[in-house]
Design goal:
The structure is a homodimer. In chain A, the strands form three sheets. Chain A has a six-stranded parallel β-sheet with strand order 2-1-3-4-5-11, with helices on both faces. Chain A has a four-stranded parallel β-sheet with strand order 7-6-8-9, sandwiched between helices. In chain A, strands 10-12 form a two-stranded antiparallel ribbon. In chain A, helix 5 links the parallel strand 1 and strand 2. The longest helix of chain A has 17 residues. The first copy, chain A, is built from 13 helices and twelve strands. Chain A is α/β, with parallel strands linked by helices. The interface between A and B is large, with 70 and 70 residues. Strand 2 of chain A pairs antiparallel with strand 2 of chain B, so a sheet runs across the interface.
Chain lengths: 348, 348
DNA sequence: CTGAAAGCGCTTACAG
DNA sequence: CTGAAAGCGCTTACAG
């Protein structure tokens, strides 16, 4: 690892210089009222003078606590997750915790490795935004059962009914997609596709269910040819736009898996001579910053990822404080933000 | 902080169970050839059985080393910095280091506080992508002179000629902006604006210089009315597009401070009835993922932030290994990636 | 209000 | 090849 640098100033140095014991200095550090005001002042001045820096790792070792939380993110280049990470870090920092970052780049193998390495720092807990198709048993093997875990956004695949316990924070995908679809129905659309995402991911499955709920509620049959699968990225969504028009009656609207997909689809539509926001309606999911400044601005479901990050940190810290808490699954409602990408149906 | 959970398995537990000493187990852990193959096997099996997890913090304390590097980022919601962070984490992880994340949200006050808190974990080094207008003396106060520092992307403001030493990794802003401007000149443009960014940031200043270099090289006077300042965000850039057309002869091209600004400007141009890529040329800086799928795809300068992240980690680790290294300033060339946003000048 | 001693979980010489 | 002892920088009872 690293070579050692000039010897650090320790409690001993301060104690010796002030002619008091280490214990006294330690009490000063933690603001104990037991120590005399004069002594406190002398000690504090000496720390200042010598440039003393507290060694929290040593304190944690002695106290058998941890002031670190591990945060493992599947895809930092997606602003939704980057914002989430920023929110987690903000809330943890406010509570005196430090964030140990790890990124899996959507690879379960890398995720396992990253978790293993972070575990050696004995974090007080783990916040995991899992790679696609992460297996619960796999995660358990990496982190054991004694470190509190909060899973964000995607359900883990549970093959073995283990006693592996963790909290979950996710979005109300089903209700969100249903709301978006219902709005399109109210605007007169009858040909509505569900566009993008991997059908085997839990969030995509749930959003598709919400879409189907709404269609069925309006007495419209679900047409599997209008359920189009793509990787959940802008580029892939752009590339497959023509799949919407492969069959005779073309849809006039698409509920998209997420904003990245919706923005990509809008580009693809333009390429095909369609005009999203004029003769075609598109909705997204997430409300990333680009959604508001897209062409046209995108109607989408707001999940406020930064707030979700803060919430994830809260939930995890509650559990570290009370390990006996029953397992929780918090599903956050998402709100429809209407912008110009959803015109009335052409015929209406 | 956190409460303690069920007692952890330690080296002692393994040693006792195997009937060997702690030292022997420690040697096994670090793969020493001194220990007998049979003993090694027995010890390893026992660790597996008991679910032993190495406590790196304890080892680091004893060895007086650190296996953590602090990474402080000004703006995680900008994909350029998020990618940079991912690159740093990737390279540090590969070398056995863990990343301590902090985010300043462009606030120097928050940055100081975050640095102070991270210092208590005695990182082996710090990688700082500073908040705008960060003061070198301020940073020095927060981290002292014994922890290696690598500053990324923006120069620190140096008021006092301190002996405060740090490495720097940045982009060749001047040459990059010059290249972009020269390309526009070659395409026949004569009315070329410099659009966006805060003029008091070092990167903006340097990019403006490159723009001026190119104009002067072509015998064109720099018109201060065509140097337009905006916050470096998509939204602000969008909002101020009309500033380009406030005076009589309008430019036919704009060299933008960065991609976010360029993408925002293109939206603003569309709003004003202009057609970027047809009757107006726009260049960006950074080549964020959206640049390639913009409308039209954006000509820009590629800085490969993920690779810069890996490079930053390398540079920092070199310094932790050899503190006596002279101060380094690495300026990375950026390459022009030409796409459809830069048509010939209308008249040409 | 302050000090002497023990201990958190490791590693490091030093013997054998 | 293995063990006993000391120590990294803190905190925690326990005396006084």
């Amino acid at each position: 690892m690293a070579l050692d640098r000039p010897r650090r100033i320790t409690l001993n140095d301060i104690a010796r210089a002030c002619g008091v014991s280490r214990a006294t200095v330690s009490l000063v550090l933690r603001g104990s009222p037991l120590v005399h005001a004069d002594t406190r002042r002398r000690v504090e001045a000496e720390m200042q003078r010598q440039g003393y820096v507290y060694n929290r790792a040593a304190a944690n070792l002695r106290q058998r606590v941890s002031s670190a939380v591990a945060l493992v993110i599947n895809d930092l280049s997606n602003p939704f997750f980057a914002e989430f990470a920023a929110g987690v870090d903000e809330a943890l920092g406010a509570k005196g915790y430090v964030t140990l970052l790890g990124s899996s780049n959507e690879s379960p193998a890398r995720q396992r490795q990253v978790l293993g390495s972070l575990m050696e720092h004995h974090p007080a807990g783990i916040i995991l935004s899992p790679a696609e198709a992460s297996d619960a048993a796999d995660i358990e093997l990496a982190i054991g059962r004694n470190t509190p875990l909060l899973v964000f956004n995607r359900q883990l695949v549970e093959n073995q009914a283990a006693g592996f316990d963790y909290d979950f924070l996710g979005l109300d995908n089903r209700a969100g997609a249903r709301t978006a679809t219902e709005r399109l129905l109210a605007l007169g659309h009858r040909g509505i596709a569900f566009y993008g995402g991997h059908a085997d991911s839990s969030s995509c499955r749930e959003r598709r269910l919400g879409y189907e709920d709404a269609l069925r509620g309006a007495g419209i049959a679900v047409d599997p040819r209008w359920m189009i699968e793509t990787a959940p990225t802008r580029i892939e969504a752009n590339a497959h736009a023509d799949a919407l028009f492969a069959d005779a009656p073309a849809p006039t609207a698409a509920v998209c898996y997420n904003d990245a997909v919706a923005l990509g689809l809008m580009l693809g539509l333009a390429r095909l001579g369609r005009h999203p926001g004029v003769d075609f309606a598109v909705t997204g999911f997430d409300d990333i910053p680009e959604a508001a400044v897209g062409i046209p601005p995108l109607t989408t479901l707001n999940a406020d990822p930064r707030a979700r990050g803060r919430q994830a940190a809260e939930l995890l810290l509650q559990r570290t404080a009370t390990p006996s808490l029953p397992r929780r699954s918090v599903i956050v409602p998402v709100l429809l933000t209407e912008r110009e990408s959803t015109p009335h149906a052409p015929s209406a």
